[in-house]
Amino acid sequence: MTLSGKTALVTGGNRGIGLAVVKALAEAGATVHFTARSAANIAAARRELGDLPATGHHADMTDSVAMTTVLEQGFDILVNNAGIIGPIGRILDVSPEDWARNIQTNLIAAFHATQLALRHMVGQGGGTIVNLSSGAAHRPMEGWSAYCAGKAGLAMLTRSVHLEYAGHGIRVFGFAPGVVDTDMQRSIRASGINPVSQIPRENLAPADEPARAIAWLCTPAADALAGQDLDVRNPDLRRMVGLRALE
Ligand code: NDP
User: Fold this and answer.
1) Model confidence over 171-188: pLDDT tens digits?
2) Most buried of 5, 80, 116, 159, CB within 10 angstroms?
3) Helix extents (H) in the chain
4) Does ligand 1 have an atom closer than 6 angstroms to the CB of 188?
5) What atom in ligand 1 is closest to the CA of residue 14?
6) Dihedrals phi, psi of 30, to nearest 5 degrees
7) Is the pTM of this model over 0.85?
8) Strand 170-176's sheet: what is its strand order?
9) For residue 234, what are the contacts with CB-CB under 8 A and spacing of at least 6?
10) Is 63 a pocket residue for ligand 1 (Cβ < 6 Å)?
11) Does domain 59-241 have CATH number 3.40.50.720?
Protein backbone atom coordinates (compact mmCIF):
# COMPACT_ATOMS: atom_id res chain seq x y z
CA MET A 1 0.00 0.00 0.00
CA THR A 2 2.44 2.59 -1.26
CA LEU A 3 0.10 5.57 -0.85
CA SER A 4 -1.30 4.82 2.59
CA GLY A 5 -1.55 7.96 4.70
CA LYS A 6 -1.94 10.14 1.58
CA THR A 7 -5.11 12.01 0.61
CA ALA A 8 -5.97 12.51 -3.06
CA LEU A 9 -8.50 14.46 -5.13
CA VAL A 10 -9.38 13.40 -8.68
CA THR A 11 -11.45 15.85 -10.73
CA GLY A 12 -14.11 14.28 -12.98
CA GLY A 13 -13.71 10.98 -11.17
CA ASN A 14 -17.12 9.55 -12.03
CA ARG A 15 -16.27 7.81 -15.31
CA GLY A 16 -13.55 7.08 -17.87
CA ILE A 17 -9.92 7.61 -16.92
CA GLY A 18 -10.88 9.59 -13.80
CA LEU A 19 -12.85 6.68 -12.32
CA ALA A 20 -9.96 4.29 -13.10
CA VAL A 21 -7.58 6.69 -11.32
CA VAL A 22 -9.87 6.81 -8.27
CA LYS A 23 -9.74 2.99 -8.17
CA ALA A 24 -5.96 2.79 -8.67
CA LEU A 25 -5.23 5.36 -5.96
CA ALA A 26 -7.63 3.68 -3.51
CA GLU A 27 -6.08 0.27 -4.26
CA ALA A 28 -2.66 1.81 -3.52
CA GLY A 29 -3.96 2.80 -0.08
CA ALA A 30 -4.68 6.53 -0.53
CA THR A 31 -7.77 8.15 0.97
CA VAL A 32 -9.45 9.22 -2.25
CA HIS A 33 -11.93 11.99 -3.00
CA PHE A 34 -13.35 12.84 -6.41
CA THR A 35 -15.52 15.49 -8.00
CA ALA A 36 -18.50 14.91 -10.29
CA ARG A 37 -21.08 17.21 -11.82
CA SER A 38 -24.15 15.62 -10.26
CA ALA A 39 -25.30 13.50 -7.33
CA ALA A 40 -26.45 10.85 -9.84
CA ASN A 41 -22.93 10.68 -11.29
CA ILE A 42 -21.47 10.26 -7.80
CA ALA A 43 -23.92 7.43 -7.12
CA ALA A 44 -23.05 5.73 -10.43
CA ALA A 45 -19.33 5.93 -9.62
CA ARG A 46 -19.95 4.55 -6.13
CA ARG A 47 -21.69 1.53 -7.69
CA GLU A 48 -18.66 0.94 -9.95
CA LEU A 49 -16.27 1.26 -7.02
CA GLY A 50 -17.95 -1.48 -4.97
CA ASP A 51 -16.15 -1.87 -1.64
CA LEU A 52 -13.34 0.55 -2.49
CA PRO A 53 -13.60 3.62 -0.27
CA ALA A 54 -13.77 7.00 -2.09
CA THR A 55 -15.78 10.13 -1.32
CA GLY A 56 -17.59 11.97 -4.10
CA HIS A 57 -18.11 15.74 -4.09
CA HIS A 58 -20.69 17.48 -6.25
CA ALA A 59 -18.67 20.22 -8.00
CA ASP A 60 -18.34 21.46 -11.54
CA MET A 61 -14.66 22.18 -12.23
CA THR A 62 -15.55 25.61 -13.58
CA ASP A 63 -17.48 26.59 -10.43
CA SER A 64 -14.79 28.33 -8.40
CA VAL A 65 -16.91 28.53 -5.24
CA ALA A 66 -17.67 24.81 -5.25
CA MET A 67 -14.03 23.93 -6.03
CA THR A 68 -12.81 26.20 -3.21
CA THR A 69 -15.06 24.33 -0.78
CA VAL A 70 -13.80 20.93 -1.95
CA LEU A 71 -10.13 21.89 -1.84
CA GLU A 72 -10.34 23.72 1.50
CA GLN A 73 -9.61 20.51 3.40
CA GLY A 74 -6.23 20.13 1.63
CA PHE A 75 -4.87 17.15 -0.28
CA ASP A 76 -1.47 15.52 -0.75
CA ILE A 77 -2.31 14.59 -4.35
CA LEU A 78 -4.36 16.42 -7.01
CA VAL A 79 -5.17 14.77 -10.35
CA ASN A 80 -6.48 17.36 -12.82
CA ASN A 81 -8.40 14.86 -14.95
CA ALA A 82 -11.74 16.51 -15.83
CA GLY A 83 -11.71 17.58 -19.45
CA ILE A 84 -13.78 17.98 -22.60
CA ILE A 85 -12.87 17.43 -26.25
CA GLY A 86 -15.35 19.76 -27.93
CA PRO A 87 -16.02 21.82 -29.84
CA ILE A 88 -14.90 19.45 -32.61
CA GLY A 89 -14.83 21.34 -35.89
CA ARG A 90 -12.57 23.44 -38.08
CA ILE A 91 -11.90 26.98 -36.86
CA LEU A 92 -14.50 28.60 -39.14
CA ASP A 93 -17.13 26.13 -37.94
CA VAL A 94 -16.94 26.48 -34.14
CA SER A 95 -18.40 29.21 -31.94
CA PRO A 96 -16.21 31.42 -29.75
CA GLU A 97 -18.46 30.53 -26.81
CA ASP A 98 -17.84 26.78 -27.20
CA TRP A 99 -14.13 27.42 -27.72
CA ALA A 100 -14.00 29.46 -24.53
CA ARG A 101 -15.87 26.73 -22.61
CA ASN A 102 -13.16 24.26 -23.56
CA ILE A 103 -10.36 26.54 -22.36
CA GLN A 104 -12.34 27.35 -19.22
CA THR A 105 -12.64 23.64 -18.39
CA ASN A 106 -9.35 22.17 -19.59
CA LEU A 107 -7.03 25.03 -18.64
CA ILE A 108 -8.49 27.75 -16.41
CA ALA A 109 -10.33 25.38 -14.06
CA ALA A 110 -7.20 23.21 -13.81
CA PHE A 111 -5.20 26.34 -12.96
CA HIS A 112 -7.67 27.24 -10.22
CA ALA A 113 -7.66 23.74 -8.72
CA THR A 114 -3.86 23.81 -8.83
CA GLN A 115 -3.73 27.16 -7.05
CA LEU A 116 -6.13 25.99 -4.34
CA ALA A 117 -4.22 22.72 -3.88
CA LEU A 118 -0.82 24.42 -3.82
CA ARG A 119 -1.74 26.66 -0.88
CA HIS A 120 -2.07 23.58 1.33
CA MET A 121 0.78 21.62 -0.29
CA VAL A 122 3.31 24.44 -0.01
CA GLY A 123 2.23 25.01 3.60
CA GLN A 124 2.89 21.37 4.49
CA GLY A 125 6.14 21.20 2.50
CA GLY A 126 5.13 18.90 -0.34
CA GLY A 127 2.53 17.38 -2.64
CA THR A 128 1.94 15.84 -6.06
CA ILE A 129 -0.08 17.24 -8.97
CA VAL A 130 -0.80 15.23 -12.14
CA ASN A 131 -2.26 17.08 -15.14
CA LEU A 132 -3.91 14.93 -17.82
CA SER A 133 -2.07 15.90 -20.97
CA SER A 134 -2.34 14.67 -24.55
CA GLY A 135 -0.33 14.27 -27.73
CA ALA A 136 -2.57 17.17 -28.83
CA ALA A 137 -0.67 19.44 -26.41
CA HIS A 138 2.33 19.23 -28.71
CA ARG A 139 0.92 18.95 -32.25
CA PRO A 140 -2.16 20.39 -33.94
CA MET A 141 -4.99 18.01 -34.83
CA GLU A 142 -7.58 18.96 -37.43
CA GLY A 143 -10.86 19.99 -35.79
CA TRP A 144 -9.44 20.20 -32.28
CA SER A 145 -8.09 23.77 -32.10
CA ALA A 146 -9.60 24.46 -28.66
CA TYR A 147 -8.53 21.11 -27.21
CA CYS A 148 -4.98 21.44 -28.59
CA ALA A 149 -4.64 25.03 -27.33
CA GLY A 150 -6.01 24.13 -23.89
CA LYS A 151 -3.79 21.07 -23.46
CA ALA A 152 -0.74 23.02 -24.73
CA GLY A 153 -1.51 25.65 -22.10
CA LEU A 154 -1.88 22.96 -19.45
CA ALA A 155 1.53 21.52 -20.42
CA MET A 156 3.04 24.97 -19.88
CA LEU A 157 1.22 25.25 -16.54
CA THR A 158 2.91 21.97 -15.54
CA ARG A 159 6.31 23.47 -16.34
CA SER A 160 5.44 26.73 -14.57
CA VAL A 161 4.42 24.93 -11.38
CA HIS A 162 7.66 22.94 -11.51
CA LEU A 163 9.75 26.09 -11.99
CA GLU A 164 8.09 27.98 -9.15
CA TYR A 165 7.40 25.24 -6.58
CA ALA A 166 9.75 22.27 -7.06
CA GLY A 167 11.88 23.91 -4.36
CA HIS A 168 8.88 23.68 -2.01
CA GLY A 169 8.62 19.91 -2.41
CA ILE A 170 5.93 20.04 -5.11
CA ARG A 171 6.17 17.26 -7.72
CA VAL A 172 4.11 18.04 -10.81
CA PHE A 173 3.68 15.82 -13.87
CA GLY A 174 1.95 16.16 -17.21
CA PHE A 175 0.73 12.76 -18.30
CA ALA A 176 -0.64 11.78 -21.72
CA PRO A 177 -2.72 8.62 -21.16
CA GLY A 178 -2.61 7.25 -24.72
CA VAL A 179 -5.72 6.63 -26.81
CA VAL A 180 -8.05 5.22 -24.18
CA ASP A 181 -11.42 3.49 -24.50
CA THR A 182 -13.72 6.09 -22.90
CA ASP A 183 -16.78 8.14 -23.84
CA MET A 184 -14.43 10.89 -25.08
CA GLN A 185 -13.11 8.52 -27.77
CA ARG A 186 -16.71 7.60 -28.65
CA SER A 187 -17.38 11.29 -29.44
CA ILE A 188 -14.15 11.48 -31.42
CA ARG A 189 -15.08 8.41 -33.51
CA ALA A 190 -18.54 9.89 -34.16
CA SER A 191 -16.98 13.12 -35.50
CA GLY A 192 -14.98 11.34 -38.24
CA ILE A 193 -12.83 14.45 -38.56
CA ASN A 194 -9.17 13.41 -38.13
CA PRO A 195 -7.02 10.25 -37.99
CA VAL A 196 -7.76 9.65 -34.28
CA SER A 197 -11.46 9.28 -35.17
CA GLN A 198 -10.53 6.40 -37.49
CA ILE A 199 -8.89 4.27 -34.79
CA PRO A 200 -11.08 1.19 -34.23
CA ARG A 201 -12.41 0.80 -30.71
CA GLU A 202 -10.63 -2.56 -30.31
CA ASN A 203 -7.27 -0.78 -30.70
CA LEU A 204 -7.89 1.58 -27.77
CA ALA A 205 -6.15 1.06 -24.44
CA PRO A 206 -8.08 0.18 -21.26
CA ALA A 207 -8.35 3.02 -18.73
CA ASP A 208 -6.68 1.01 -15.98
CA GLU A 209 -3.28 1.26 -17.75
CA PRO A 210 -2.90 5.05 -17.52
CA ALA A 211 -4.52 4.88 -14.08
CA ARG A 212 -1.83 2.53 -12.78
CA ALA A 213 0.82 4.83 -14.22
CA ILE A 214 -0.73 7.87 -12.53
CA ALA A 215 -0.80 6.05 -9.17
CA TRP A 216 2.89 5.22 -9.71
CA LEU A 217 3.67 8.90 -10.43
CA CYS A 218 2.25 9.69 -6.99
CA THR A 219 4.98 7.58 -5.33
CA PRO A 220 8.58 8.63 -4.63
CA ALA A 221 9.71 6.18 -7.38
CA ALA A 222 8.81 8.91 -9.90
CA ASP A 223 10.73 11.74 -8.19
CA ALA A 224 13.34 12.03 -10.98
CA LEU A 225 10.61 12.59 -13.61
CA ALA A 226 8.97 15.58 -11.89
CA GLY A 227 8.29 18.61 -14.07
CA GLN A 228 7.99 16.61 -17.31
CA ASP A 229 5.10 16.06 -19.70
CA LEU A 230 5.18 12.26 -19.89
CA ASP A 231 3.47 9.83 -22.28
CA VAL A 232 2.20 6.39 -21.29
CA ARG A 233 3.47 5.07 -24.63
CA ASN A 234 7.10 5.73 -23.58
CA PRO A 235 8.67 2.22 -23.30
CA ASP A 236 10.98 3.18 -20.41
CA LEU A 237 8.09 4.63 -18.42
CA ARG A 238 5.98 1.51 -19.10
CA ARG A 239 8.81 -0.68 -17.81
CA MET A 240 9.17 1.39 -14.64
CA VAL A 241 5.40 1.27 -13.98
CA GLY A 242 5.19 -2.44 -14.83
CA LEU A 243 2.81 -2.08 -17.80
CA ARG A 244 2.84 -4.57 -20.71
CA ALA A 245 5.19 -3.67 -23.57
CA LEU A 246 3.48 -2.25 -26.65
CA GLU A 247 3.96 -4.06 -30.01
P1 NDP B 1 -14.52 11.28 -20.56
O2 NDP B 1 -15.20 12.19 -21.49
O3 NDP B 1 -14.78 9.82 -20.65
O4 NDP B 1 -14.74 11.76 -19.04
C5 NDP B 1 -14.50 13.10 -18.73
C6 NDP B 1 -14.73 13.33 -17.26
O7 NDP B 1 -14.50 14.73 -17.00
C8 NDP B 1 -16.16 13.02 -16.83
O9 NDP B 1 -16.15 12.54 -15.51
C10 NDP B 1 -16.81 14.39 -16.90
O11 NDP B 1 -17.95 14.55 -16.08
C12 NDP B 1 -15.67 15.24 -16.37
N13 NDP B 1 -15.88 16.64 -16.65
C14 NDP B 1 -15.95 17.28 -17.84
N15 NDP B 1 -16.20 18.57 -17.67
C16 NDP B 1 -16.28 18.78 -16.33
C17 NDP B 1 -16.51 19.90 -15.51
N18 NDP B 1 -16.74 21.12 -16.02
N19 NDP B 1 -16.53 19.72 -14.17
C20 NDP B 1 -16.32 18.52 -13.63
N21 NDP B 1 -16.11 17.40 -14.35
C22 NDP B 1 -16.08 17.55 -15.68
O23 NDP B 1 -12.95 11.57 -20.78
P24 NDP B 1 -11.67 10.64 -20.55
O25 NDP B 1 -11.83 9.83 -19.34
O26 NDP B 1 -11.35 10.01 -21.84
O27 NDP B 1 -10.57 11.77 -20.33
C28 NDP B 1 -10.06 12.15 -19.05
C29 NDP B 1 -8.90 13.10 -19.27
O30 NDP B 1 -7.89 12.47 -20.06
C31 NDP B 1 -9.28 14.38 -20.01
O32 NDP B 1 -8.57 15.47 -19.48
C33 NDP B 1 -8.82 14.10 -21.44
O34 NDP B 1 -8.56 15.25 -22.16
C35 NDP B 1 -7.58 13.26 -21.19
N36 NDP B 1 -7.20 12.43 -22.33
C37 NDP B 1 -8.00 11.40 -22.74
C38 NDP B 1 -7.62 10.61 -23.83
C39 NDP B 1 -8.42 9.44 -24.29
O40 NDP B 1 -8.00 8.77 -25.26
N41 NDP B 1 -9.54 9.09 -23.67
C42 NDP B 1 -6.39 10.90 -24.59
C43 NDP B 1 -5.63 12.02 -24.08
C44 NDP B 1 -6.03 12.74 -22.99
P45 NDP B 1 -19.47 14.27 -16.64
O46 NDP B 1 -19.68 12.79 -16.49
O47 NDP B 1 -20.34 15.11 -15.79
O48 NDP B 1 -19.48 14.72 -18.10
Assistant:
1) 999 999 999 999 999 999
2) 80
3) 16-27, 39-49, 64-71, 96-103, 109-124, 145-165, 183-191, 208-217, 235-241
4) no
5) 9
6) -75, 155
7) yes
8) 55-58, 31-36, 7-10, 77-80, 127-132, 170-176, 229-231
9) none
10) no
11) yes
